[in-house]
Design brief:
The complex is a heterodimer of chains A (about 450) and B (about 260).
Chain A lengths: L2 H4 L20 H9 L4 H27 L24 H13 L7 H19 L6 H21 L7 H25 L3 H23 L14 H27 L4 H16 L2 H10 L1 H4 L10 H25 L2 H9 L4 H16 L1 H14 L11 H9 L9 H34 L3
Helix pairs in contact in A: 4-9, 4-17, 5-6, 7-8, 9-10, 9-13, 9-16, 9-17, 10-13, 11-13, 13-15, 13-16, 14-15, 16-18, 17-18
Chain B lengths: L1 H7 L8 E12 L2 E12 L3 E5 L6 H8 L7 E6 L2 E2 L4 H10 E4 L11 H11 L5 H14 L15 H13 L5 E5 L7 H16 L3 E5 L3 H7 L2 E6 L2 E6 L1 H6 L4 H10 L2
Parallel strand pairs in B: 3-8, 3-9, 6-7, 7-8
Antiparallel strand pairs in B: 1-2, 1-4, 4-5, 9-10
The chains are: A mainly alpha (about 450), B alpha/beta (about 260).
Chain lengths: ~450, ~260
Amino acid sequence: MSTAVDMPRFVRAQQVEALPPPSLTRGPIAWVRENLFSGPFNTVLTLVVFYLLYVSVPPLVKFLFIDAVWSGTDRAVCRADMGGSESGACWAFIRDKINYFTYGSYTVSERWRVNIFFALLAIGVVWLLWLKAPRRDLGAVYFFWLFPIASYILLTGGNATFSGRFWLGFLIFGALVIAFFAFVAAILKVSLRPALIIGGGIVGVVGVTLALVDMDFGLAHVPTSLWGGILVTLLVATVGIVFSLPFGIVLALGRRSKLPIVRMASVIFIEFVRGVPLITVLIMANTMLPLFLPGDITVDRLLRPLIGTALFASAYMAEVVRGGLQAMPKGQYEGAMSLGLNYPQMMILIILPQALRIVIPGIVNTFIGLFKDTSLVAIVGIFDLVKTIEASRIDPNWAAPSIGLTGYAFAALFYFIFCFGMSRYSLGVERRLASGQKR
Amino acid sequence: MTAQTVQTAVIDPKAESAIQLIDVHKWYGEFHVLRDINLNVRRSERIVICGPSGSGKSTMIRCINRLEEHQKGRIIVDGTELTNDLKRIDEVRKDVGMVFQHFNLFPHLTILENCTLAPIWVKKMPKKEAEEVAMHYLTRVKIPEQANKYPGQLSGGQQQRVAIARSLCMSPKIMLFDEPTSALDPEMVKEVLDTMVGLAEEGMTMLCVTHEMGFARQVADRVIFMDYGQIVEMNTPDEFFKNPQHERTKLFLSQILH
């Protein structure tokens, strides 16, 4: 019995044309039905959410905008007993104090310098973050070298007046650095020339930096104790972000190193810093750092929490980066090694670009956390934005019931704009990177 | 034509060895993966290595460019002995190309960048020249038009051909293939094998771990059968397939040549 004989034969002669989907799956009504009222449970949920929005949004809008007081010179406009309105936000307070919130107690006649700093910062950030910007390599040089020097000179006034002894010390130090590089080259048996170039380059860059800092530009000195507000918040956040990523990468690589001492040092640092609260780190940086240093060296009181937050963030960053390194398939290492790439080349060209790409959400998460954690520097007496608001809130000239709420609403808005910006930017980068290499 | 030259290839004592493995042993912890491997590969020799999984064949060829470390014995590649000296390892890797089962292309770089990366950074070749070399080899593996795509946009067979081109861009003296067709759809195996046959005909020294017995018959000078970390049998392909000596080889061949 042969079944093949009975089997009907069929050969398709033409390809079936693609048809448009049924109309019920498109259009606004279909969308509403599918997304809001697709079943009894979802319908209930939708209604509850609508009710909650109804309860919360209108009063908020009313407080922030409709009933708000926009202008005025003192508390009278925001107090009912003095003829003002106190049911809404007192934006007049923010307008009156905005200079304090931006610059802190920075010398009034010198505030233009801070404005230039903000502009330089904005240029640097846009240059680096705008992916199609021209010469982004120059942008990096600008942001990581020229901009910090310019900022330092602008904000403090520069003119560090280093002593001759200092320069002598620097010369000795420079010679030692170059000798160190030559020594490493000799150990690794690689050629001496690049090592000398790298060593000399580092010493040169540091030397030029110090010379610029030492130069007298005729700017009045503004001590860091006067700095405050948005200036300090942005400064601490920028320094933290800029230092935590490279430092975190180094720590993550160190933690995965085969050399036990390097690994142990990285593990101890990461676990210790992650194991204590930021406030502890800040207080330790503030009160204990001077104890470790020789008596005649004083670390600026703004620099201490700056270092503290940067170190704190880098420990978290290290773990984020390690997550990315862990996710890299072994084949990528082998592919790179089989081509003869050495360890630094393999890491910089192959592994890190991919590993960092995987952990962009985690990196940005850490950045956002760091940005908001900068408000904790207030604990060691630094006047960041929140602290300046806190200080203005008790100004008797502005004693009104809605002042506190308004101040914090302003702070919330400020932090939200920056954090949301970072979040959206990272999403954009992820999307852009993903489109190039879909698997 | 190649098959005949293969058979007439006799051992020429004057020819310098491309690769020498002398009494090589390797352990993974307590597990003895490679046991007393002795192998002498002449220049331009094509060797196919087969054997059941876990027999140590991949480990053996990965020892040749030091992706794996051997613990005993000597491995001499192109006159350079592999030791812990990192510089020597890099020297050897420059001359030894490797093609992997899972391609191991760099997904964040375009095909062209994949191919020019090592010449630019390892051989310090100018970018322009490296790109010309890369396009030359991409044309040879018949995919020059894909140069600006990313690996993820290519089929498995195309990716493997890129991987071969990427290795060739370093103008290696020796090519190692670690099951290059095992991860491919049947339709794509041929295009990769054709590329490898072309390479063999040009006189490249090749060590190839594969179960493509047709390929072994066509190009191999010697076929090696490994089991339990040892070389069990080594012979010319004709003898190997027609007249296997060892029981284990017979069993293996009966299972893969249906």
